[in-house]
Amino acid sequence: MTEIRALIDDKPLEIDKDQQPNAKAGADFVRDITIDTPRANGTVSLVALNQFGPSQAASVKVEWAGLVEEVRPDLYVLAVGVRDYSRPAELLKFPDQDARDFAARMRQQENHFYARVTPHLLTNDHATIDAIKKEFVWLRRQMTQRDVAVIFLSGHGKKESASGYDFLPYDADQDNPELTYLHGHEIKYLLGDMPGLKILFVDSCYSGNVFNEAGLKGDDGVADVNDLANQLSTAGSGTVVFTSSQGKELSKEIDKWGHDAFTQALLEGLQGQADHPEIHISQLDAYMARRVKELTQGRQHPTMVRPPGMTNIPIASAQ
């Protein structure tokens, strides 16, 4: 073993470094671990890691018998939307507006589901590769085990790395993808040991440099955001991933919506059409799947992947 992770409802908890296994730890490694759990019912889990990855979680349900102390978490929002690019590419219509409206909708959760909401917004020429990475670092420094981070990415995607998916920032350069694309493995690293609950919305699916029709975020490339979603949502990661479509499907945007189908359904769901009075991830997923299918005449099917063992947790309240 190289690491032990403790979780409450699949949200990572802090473990002191002196409680972690050392290089001499063998198969019979035994250690007492002290963790701080909230004053509420929940599922406590342990996950062991070695050089091959995480184990299945060992879990036990616990019930809080004392007085319930409602402590609302803080929410940190990173919304990125790239409509036009510094180098030639098929213009999209709504990613910047998608990001603005999503950030505004989450901002309404302050003093409702969350004690405080801190949104950061990057659109178009502000959404450079350096700026986006700095915002991920900001999230890592702000988050505690009791907080929630929501990341929204809208724009073009492409496959240039082994992770199977890359997000294209404003200054993406196809001749220099190593330094100018936000690679899936970088997203995985930046979210990997971040404490708390992380929810990632990716509204781009797969896309290439050549786009075959205005208003579609894709071509016949092979970049697959679902592969990234599966990598992120491993046991103990505390990460839920919503993607705008499956595999090689295209993401559709139409003028009369002012958004693409995924974001339109997401905003409706967060407004209360998915669930009431609290919006749970499974109900949001079910609503978005039904609504996107309706808006695109069955051409697009969004997905949601959550870590094994994660309960159907609420993430917002209906507004």
Description:
By secondary structure, this protein is of the alpha+beta class. It folds into 2 domains: 3-62, no CATH class; 74-317, Rossmann fold (3-Layer(aba) Sandwich). The protein contains 7 helices and 18 strands.
- What is the count of DSSP helices, taking H or I runs of 4+ residues? 7
Estimate the global geometry from the Cα principal axes. globular
Question: What's the number of extended β-strand segments?
Answer: 18
| Terminal Cα span | 45 Å
Structural class determined from secondary elements: alpha+beta
How much of the polypeptide forms β-strand, as a percent range?
Answer: 25-35%
Q: Sheet with the most strands?
A: 6 strands, mixed
Instruction: Give the overall pLDDT as a whole number.
Output: 85
Based on the model shown, name its key terms.
319 residues; alpha+beta; Rossmann fold; 2 domains; 6-stranded mixed β-sheet; globular
